[in-house]
Fold this sequence. Notes:
This protein has helices at 4-29, 44-53, 67-73, 77-84, 119-132, 150-161, 194-197, 209-224, 253-260, 264-274, 278-301, 308-316, and strands at residues 59-63, 108-112, 138-143, 166-172, 175-176, 179-180, 201-205, 230-235.
Amino acid sequence: MEDQQNHLALYRQMQLIRRFEEEAARAYAQGKIGGFLHLYIGQEAVAVGACAAMQKDDYVITTYRDHGQALARGMSARAAMAELFGKATGCSRGLGGSMHFFDAEHHMLGGYGIVGGHLPIAAGTAFASKYRGEPRVTLAFFGEGAASIGDCHEAMCLAALWKLPIVFICENNEYSMGTPLTRTFAVDDVTARAPGYGMPSDRFAAEHVFQIRDRLKVAIDRARGGGGPSLVEIRTYRFRGHSMSDPGKYRTPEELEAKKKLDPLSKTRSELEAAGLADALAKIDAEVDEEVADAVRFAEESPEPGPELLEQTTYKGEFAR
Ligand SMILES: Cc1ncc(C[n+]2csc(CCOP(=O)(O)OP(=O)(O)O)c2C)c(N)n1
């Protein structure tokens, strides 16, 4: 039986990501956030389960759909929201925006807008850990739409060849913008490619945050123990459009409603209610609401980035510490 405090803690992280993004969507509609905004709503259990399976010094690298991983890794809601608002107090000093979150303190190395482009960087990060003899694992998240990008192939090929400590996590949320995997991939299984790289794999539907944590831990432990990389495909679903400008006409309302019934966050909530923890849940929900409201206030009141950031972010590299 899982420890109830741990169960509540993982619920809190998932609820924080969801509420953070609901408020981000509202602020975007109000014109307070510019550029792109890709929401992770529906997929929270993947980031939270993965971060629960990792150790403190492990690295996370992900796509433009990066708010969930950043918050699950420990970035403050303030630094995340301020980044969305383009403010100097944001995690990337307001210069990156939604797609370019970065948090060296929590080893969250981005936030990348080029589909698949971060995967060779992830392999390089894992190479560095191995070269330095550090027991760190890199978790590289990507969508199924990136699976056929050349960068993905190159990264997996070298990672397997050099037995790098990395776990490639494909979050298969069924659509690459509006394109289903069946229109870009001849087989309905991203992990079918793993044997070609000489890599072990795992594949499952995201049903529960504990399940995700425990399945990923197998691959993470293998990587840390010198067993090389793995490819894990997690079938999940995003409840919102690809980005804020996507009305989602490629899927039916019935499909969306059916998927919402399988929401791992709702499932965790129901379990905790059934365990008699309704009061604890209400307290967490109130705290999370306040944390997100505080983050919005903080972002609104923070200053815009000014020319003083130019030198340190362009020439000296101090920004990346
Ligand atoms: C190299 C490249 N090609 C195309 C795009 C435009 N683009 C942005 S997101 C996206 C879909 C990617 O889908 P997927 O990898 O499944 O991730 P998801 O958005 O579902 O999380 C595309 C084609 C891009 N950013 N980079």
